[in-house]
């Protein structure tokens, strides 16, 4: 378990620069691509659609997406150290692009320029730092902006629904949200006999209280929120 000091460091650029300078081996937070591929394929079925992986680090996740046929996978990270390393590593793969960028300020991307945004731990890292609510709201609003209408934000996190759903509501974004779960023990292992069916959504009410009755209290899972951008909902909310 990380100490309070090191956990808070997850939101800081210097921490990641230092980490990637000293640790060059690929590392995937929470889950790797093979374990999540059925869900990615379900919500981003068109291999020609444009995907954005935020807080990519030196993960092999995006490489797995390209191996699976995805043709345009853009990756961003706040650390220039890791972006330089990943650009060099994948210079022969035009389907993979790596850019140094802060997810809270993605003005280099036009509105509605991606079909899917994938987040494995980046929102969680921001929530570890100071002014976490303000910064997480900035991030969510930027993710919503760069997504096309009906595009999907796929968030893999340790955060339970009673916390994450409240966070979604605090931003000005309008999402239709579905919840999936995957056993933490399946990280890096083949999906032979998962306890939960990955592609089957868990019943989800507005407060997330329905989840406990479906999967029990304190389950050993990663939560996967599939947030579908819905501009019509935002229009309705603004009209009220």
Structural description of this entry:
By secondary structure, this protein is an alpha/beta fold. The chain contains 10 helices and 7 strands. It has a 7-stranded mixed sheet with strand order 3-2-1-4-5-7-6. It is globular, with a radius of gyration of 17 Å. Residues 1-5 have low confidence and may be disordered.
Topology:
Elements: H1 4-9, H2 13-22, H3 33-43, E1 50-54, H4 61-67, E2 72-77, H5 80-89, E3 96-100, E4 114-120, H6 122-127, H7 132-146, E5 147-157, H8 161-170, E6 175-183, H9 210-215, E7 221-229, H10 231-239
Parallel strand pairs: 1-2, 1-4, 2-3, 4-5
Antiparallel strand pairs: 5-7, 6-7
N-C termini distance:
45 Å
Spatial strand arrangement across the major sheet: 3-2-1-4-5-7-6
Proportion of residues in β-strands: 15-25%
Q: How many beta strands in the DSSP annotation? A: 7
Q: Work out the helix count.
A: 10
Parts with pLDDT < 50 across at least 5 consecutive residues: 1-5
Radius of gyration: 17 Å
Give the SSE order as H and E letters. Answer: HHHEHEHEEHHEHEHEH
Oligomer: single chain
Average pLDDT, to the nearest integer?
Answer: 88
* Structural class computed from helices and strand pairing: alpha/beta
Shape: globular
Largest sheet: 7 strands, mixed
Helix share, percent: 25-40%
List keywords for this structure.
disordered N terminus; 240 residues; single chain; Methyltransf_11; 38% helix; S-adenosylmethionine-dependent methyltransferase activity; 7-stranded mixed beta sheet; alpha/beta; 10 helices
């Amino acid at each position: 378990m990380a100490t309070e000091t090191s956990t808070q460091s997850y939101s800081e650029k210097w921490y990641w620069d230092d980490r990637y300078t000293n640790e060059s081996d690929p590392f995937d937070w929470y889950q790797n691509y093979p374990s999540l591929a059925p869900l990615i394929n379900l919500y981003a079925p068109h291999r020609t659609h444009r995907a954005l992986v935020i807080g990519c680090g030196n993960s092999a996740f995006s490489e797995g997406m390209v191996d699976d046929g995805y043709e345009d996978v853009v990756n961003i990270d706040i650390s220039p150290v890791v972006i330089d390393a990943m650009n060099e590593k994948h210079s022969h793969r035009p389907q993979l692009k790596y850019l140094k960028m802060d997810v809270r300020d993605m003005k280099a991307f036009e509105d509605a320029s991606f079909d899917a945004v994938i987040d494995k731990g980046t929102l969680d890292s921001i929530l570890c730092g100071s002014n976490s609510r303000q910064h997480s709201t900035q991030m969510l609003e930027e993710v919503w902006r760069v997504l096309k209408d009906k595009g999907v934000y796929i968030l893999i996190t340790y955060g339970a629904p009673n916390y994450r759903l409240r966070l979604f509501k605090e931003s000005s974004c309008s999402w239709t949200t579905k919840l999936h779960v995957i056993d933490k023990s399946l990280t890096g292992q083949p999906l032979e006999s998962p306890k939960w069916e990955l592609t089957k959504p868990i019943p989800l009410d507005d407060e997330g209280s329905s989840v406990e009755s479906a999967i029990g209290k304190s389950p050993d899972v990663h939560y996967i929120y599939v947030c579908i951008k819905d501009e019509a909902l935002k229009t309705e909310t603004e009209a009220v």
